[in-house]
Amino acid sequence: MAFTLPPLPYDENALEPIIDAKTMNIHRTKHHQAYVDNLNKALDGQVEFAEWTLDQICEQMGSIPETIRAVVRNNAGGHWNHSFFWPILAAKGQGGTPSVDLAAAIGASFGSFDAFKKGFVEAGMKRFGSGWAWLVMKRGGALAASSTPNQDNPLMKGFVDSPGIPLLGVDVWEHAYYLNYQNKRADYLAAFWDVVNWNEVNRRFAEATKG
Ligand code: MN3
Predict the structure, then answer these.
(1) 143 alpha carbon to ligand 1 midpoint, in Å?
(2) Which of 23, 71, 124, 141 has a CA that sits 20 to 30 A from residue 33's CA?
(3) 169: Cβ contacts below 8 Å, ≥ 6 apart
(4) pLDDT of 137
(5) CA 121 – CA 135 distance, rounded (Å)
(6) Spacing, Cα 26 to ligand 1 middle (Å)
């Protein structure tokens, strides 16, 4: 079954002024759509993977034939990461706050909420070139801030430094922020907190905790 671009859960201008409508439009209908199209193209005729979910492809990247693995890794990652990204954003003031349970887990793993934010932003700032910063739940339940290059994600066990279940992530490719922030990734990451959809992060955390 071919993969498709998921619907955006809000209007393209909903995240303004933090993320402008033009960036949202280009990012989703051009960049994200290209990952979808290129993933479908790469898997065309690969009957063995016809019923695989996007999660399965990311989690079992080592099972993808080497001849197509690099293109599948880039584009399945790109599709997964952006499909994850849109719903964990919400209009300023609409995203709620971390749940009591999530706040407690963040406190236990990082020492404080501010220490978590600092670690998460640092992960994004230190990522040279293009990639993502993540809050992940590692095996055993501890939370960690990490980053991945390109379109890799924490589901890709054996391919990334800090595998786990992604709870929050931010795209630090220049295409995610260049129109509004130009080269100022730090400003983009500082503003990002205003549009985090904690309701969705809480839901993912509750689901991950259930196991
Ligand atoms: Mn992107």
Answers:
(1) 24
(2) 124
(3) 81, 84, 85, 88, 132, 133, 134, 135, 153
(4) 98
(5) 10
(6) 10
Q: Are 72 and 42 in contact (CB under 8 A)?
A: yes
- Confidence at 120, pLDDT banded by 50, 70, 90: very high
Centroid of ligand 1 to alpha carbon of 104 (angstroms): 30
Instruction: Find the 100 Cα to ligand 1 centroid distance in Å.
Output: 30
Starting at the edge strand found earlier in the chain, the sheet holding 165-171 runs 143-149, 131-137, 165-171
Q: Using 50, 70 and 90 to split pLDDT, how confident is the model at 147?
A: very high
Q: How far is the CA of 36 from the centre of ligand 1 (A)?
A: 12
Tokens of 4: 């498709």
Cα(33) to ligand 1 centroid in Å equals 10
Domains of the chain: residue spans and CATH = 21-88 (1.10.287.990), 100-210 (3.55.40.20)
Separation CA 58–CA 81 (nearest Å): 10
Q: How many CB atoms lie within 10 A of CB 75?
A: 24
Q: What is the pLDDT of residues 79-114, one digit of tens each?
A: 999 999 999 999 999 999 999 999 999 999 999 999
CB atoms within 10 A of CB 110: 20
Q: How far is the CA of 76 from the centre of ligand 1 (A)?
A: 13
Q: What pLDDT was estimated at residue 18?
A: 98
Centre of ligand 1 to C-alpha 203, Å, is: 23
